[in-house]
Every structure is written in C-alpha cells, then in structure tokens.
C-alpha cells in the first residue's frame, strides 16, 4: 500500500521546513511497501552541525503545528545525524559528510521517490 495522504502532507511540510533553514539536499522516499513502521523517509542534509540542529528544530516546530509530535529523536548530541520519528514519517537530517558516507538513498533505491515540492533546494541525489 502506498504512503497515505497524511504521510505525504507531513513529508512535504518537513521538506519545506528544512528548506527554510537552507538544507542542501532534500529527498523523500516512499518506504511503505518495505516497512510496516513508517510510510516516508525524508532525508535532508546540512553543511554544519549547527545547521543540522536548526533544521531539526524547524521540522519539529512545523509538524507540531500540524498536530504531529515526534515519537522519538536520536542523535541530537553529536549533531551529525539526527533521526526524528513522527510515526507516519521519519526525518533524517544529516551532516553532508554522513550523507555521503551512509548513502541512504542508495540503500532504499528500490523504493519510489516522493515529490516533496520543496522550493529553493537541490532535490534528488539518486
């Protein structure tokens, strides 16, 4: 079953929030056919640890306004790769070096990409 409308709405909101804080690359991946625990991965990257934190805060604030609270947040202390689990979507905010090293898009290349409609960012990467 493809991602729900609510998941897509949250993913687009997360992408726009990341773009507001100048994320360098934003990608959405529909993992609903592969994972039972979530529908969409949103992956965004930043050049510095400080920017990673700013993106994370903006995403959380934006989705909270839509009535979605994070279930879990991991990796905040190091600021290199923060995962925010909202249940319907999981947002990965990675430092550019972690993004290049772990290549999450390559790991999930068999899943369809989601058009996030984020303006002013480089999208893609697969």
Automatic annotation (TrEMBL):
PANTHER family: IOJAP SUPERFAMILY ORTHOLOG, MITOCHONDRIAL ASSEMBLY OF RIBOSOMAL LARGE SUBUNIT PROTEIN 1. It is found in: Cytoplasm. The lineage of its organism: Bacteria, Bacillati, Actinomycetota, Actinomycetes, Micrococcales. The gene is rsfS. One of its GO terms (biological process) is cytosolic ribosome assembly. Functions as a ribosomal silencing factor. Interacts with ribosomal protein uL14 (rplN), blocking formation of intersubunit bridge B8. Prevents association of the 30S and 50S ribosomal subunits and the formation of functional ribosomes, thus repressing translation. SUPFAM superfamilies: Nucleotidyltransferase. Its main location: cytoplasm. Keywords: Cytoplasm, Repressor, Translation regulation. This is Ribosomal silencing factor RsfS. Interacts with ribosomal protein uL14 (rplN). InterPro entries: Iojap/RsfS/C7orf30, NT_sf.
């Amino acid at each position: 079953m493809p991602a729900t409308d609510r998941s897509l709405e949250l993913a687009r909101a997360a992408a726009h929030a990341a773009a507001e804080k100048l994320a360098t690359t934003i990608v959405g991946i529909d993992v609903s056919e592969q994972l039972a625990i979530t529908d969409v991965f949103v992956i965004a990257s930043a050049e510095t640890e400080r920017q990673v934190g700013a993106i994370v805060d903006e995403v959380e604030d934006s989705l909270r306004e839509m009535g979605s609270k994070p279930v879990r947040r991991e990796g905040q202390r190091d600021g290199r790769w923060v995962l925010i689990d909202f249940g319907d979507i999981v947002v990965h905010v990675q430092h550019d070096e972690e993004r290049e090293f772990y290549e999450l898009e390559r790991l999930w290349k068999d899943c369809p990409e989601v058009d996030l409609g984020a303006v002013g960012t480089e999208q893609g990467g697969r």
